[in-house]
């Protein structure tokens, strides 16, 4: 016989066992005590927060055979035991995702007239009720408005915005909230003790954060980790299972961001992803860390469920940022997490977010995007310092050229092939003037060349617009092209045609509906 899943084994069986939904348990217990239980409820909230569990507890409470109201459900009477063992015929659970049509609701309407077979009330629990069709909702309205006295409806949904107003007006709505990290950690620790599992505090914290406020998801993750068979849940196991980045990696990246060290930050991103971390999870952890910096900056660091050592670390890093900088960085990495869903490159959105975070737009408005020397079109000299035992001397050197500039033959025009073959040399030239701009131009592509016009394609529309609208950015590219090929060129920055096609496909209503149901775009045929 297969082992029972932990989230089922430790599923709450009474109101007092439900975590984090005190406002709802109090409402339902008062309604039971006063004999004012509604004929129809709408339980709404994120997944894994206890909606169907609460519906089952309510079904037991209204039918419990215990004499005292404050003891219901007692989980010992015949009705409570039948529900716990899932054999009570008067508790009907319906999945609206797979029974969403009008015929299914008509069948339900025909059955509600029958009296309960064993219990006092027949309870219908309709899960994911927002998936019902418009016709099905219309068919349900009359029953919800005037149900038989022996019937109670509990509608559960994660998307209340899709419930028609006519239905909302006929039910009593109770909103379930996401559970806090301390609440989830406390429950995980309790289950681990009962299962005789040794757990590292940092491991439970990551599980709680990853669950997104859903207790069921958190317990399921703990169950997965317990199946390793070692009798211990460690931080390394959690990071390996989730593809999570270590807190050290996140801290290193934020530190490089504070010091504006482009190279160091890009190295951290590459090493973290190459080490097996999931890019989207890494982005989410960065956003969570930036949120912690914002709370610390606002003097509310104690609101974070962190150790004293971690709080000190957060406060020290927060001093290196202003609130506008933290807000900007959070938006950039949050957007990167979204863009990673469709990106073919596992690091590019993170790299671009990091570089753009350093290239502060506010600073950009105060100073030119690129500094242009007046004396000559040659790159400015690089100053290198060499240390000797006796003293320190400065040695000025010109940038070394491995090859001479490419000279096009008379009458010969520049081609996309020639540009692609020498793009690294163009980037090296740009890097002499502005390393940040050079980093932002990686993973671009040449679309076409028409006379002296070079069309450059970017993977993200925002980056194309930024270079196209800010003339000094294009000026730097044009200048470097002129120096490499010894001819003047104009540059136009656009969204890459491949990316533009992908964007058009993503905006197709049919594709959007398919993606909502879990579909993914794997390939676009020409």
Superfamily at the CATH H level of the largest domain?
A: P-loop containing nucleotide triphosphate hydrolases
Q: Radius of gyration over alpha carbons?
A: 31 Å
For the record, the CATH architecture of the largest domain stands as 3-Layer(aba) Sandwich
Largest sheet: number of strands, sense, barrel closure:
5 strands, parallel
Strand order of the main beta sheet, please?
2-3-4-1-5
Structural shape:
elongated
CATH topology of the largest domain: Rossmann fold
Mean pLDDT: 81
Termini separation comes to 52 Å
Unreliable stretches: 361-404
Name the helicity range: 40-55%
Tally of helical runs: 24
Overall number of domains: 4
Number of strands: 12
Structural class: alpha/beta
How big a fraction of the residues is strand?
5-15%
Question: Would you mind describing this structure in some detail?
Answer:
The strands form 4 sheets. The protein has a 5-stranded parallel sheet, covered by helices on one side. Strands 10-11-12 form a 3-stranded mixed sheet. Strands 6-7 form a two-stranded parallel sheet. The chain has 4 domains: 6-175, Rossmann fold, CATH 3.40.50; 181-242, Orthogonal Bundle (Helicase, Ruva Protein, domain 3); 247-365, Up-down Bundle (Zinc Finger, Delta Prime, domain 3), CATH 1.20.272; 382-495, DnaA, N-terminal domain (GMP Synthetase, Chain A, domain 3), CATH 3.30.300. It is α/β, with parallel strands linked by helices. It has 24 helices and 12 strands. Strand 10 and strand 11 form a beta hairpin. The chain has helices at 6-9, 22-34, 51-63, 78-84, 102-111, 134-145, 165-168, 181-194, 201-210, 215-226, 235-242, 247-259, 262-274, 279-297, 308-318, 323-339, 348-358, 361-366, 416-433, 435-440, 461-469, 471-485, 497-506, 509-516, and strands at residues 40-44, 91-95, 122-127, 151-157, 172-175, 198-199, 232-233, 382-387, 392-397, 445-450, 453-458, 490-495. The longest helix is centred in the middle third of the chain and has 19 residues, at 279-297. Residues 361-404 have low confidence and may be disordered. Helix 9 packs parallel to helix 11.
